[in-house]
Write a structure and sequence with these properties.
Layout lengths: L15 H9 L4 H8 L3 H10 L7 H9 L1 H18 L3 H9 L2 H10 L7 H28 L4 H8 L3 H10 L21
């Protein structure tokens, strides 16, 4: 899973000036990569385009130890963790550095770590919701005249999966169209 734990409503504009402002307020390159959706190299290039004075890794760590930048990171990680179901490993990749540091920052921001079972439950609820939305959209298109094989090809699912999704949302299925000889056996003379 690509760490798409960034909030769509909290996306960073990908202009060099916006990235520079975020970087200078304490965000690291790894965090900018996660929240902007750009590659590491592109973020670096955009920061340089904006004339940003780049920090070394130890300078970033030192900055993170200071109050405002650390608080900002902790709040950001808590949002990713609670609203988007991110794991501690994903928080580490988003800027905390390690799972242990992510856990510490989460607690500092007032969050409480979940157990592995709770994380699986949160993610499964999100997956079920997403799958139900897909099934409902398939139902609308099916009732609009699309065939199951067409739908399967469009969403890269098997025909059996599309049938199962359609049945789960109570779709009234059309009779199957049979190609080939008539169903009655002909008598031979």
């Amino acid at each position: 899973m690509n760490t798409e734990a960034s909030a769509p409503d909290d996306e960073v504009p990908v202009t060099p000036q916006a990235l520079r402002a975020r970087y200078e307020s304490g965000a690291g390159v790894a965090e900018l990569v996660v929240i902007s959706g750009l590659s590491h190299g592109t973020v670096i290039n955009r920061l340089r385009e904006a004339g940003t004075v780049m920090r070394t890794s130890w300078q970033t760590r030192k900055l993170r130890e200071s109050g405002p930048a650390r608080q900002h990171l902790a709040v950001r990680l808590r949002t990713l963790y609670e609203q988007h179901g991110a794991t501690l490993i994903e928080l580490a990749k988003a800027g905390a550095g390690t799972r242990r540091a992510a856990r510490r920052l989460l607690i500092e921001a007032g969050g409480s770590p979940r157990s592995a079972q709770q994380t699986r439950r949160v993610r499964s609820v999100a997956a079920i919701s997403k799958r139900r939305k897909l099934a409902l959209s398939l139902r609308v298109r099916y009732e609009g005249g699309a065939t199951v094989p067409e739908l399967a090809k469009e969403c890269s699912y098997s025909v059996a999966t599309v049938y199962r999704l359609l049945r789960q949302v109570g779709t009234r299925m059309r009779p199957k169209h049979r190609h080939g000889p008539a169903s009655k056996a002909r008598k031979r003379s």
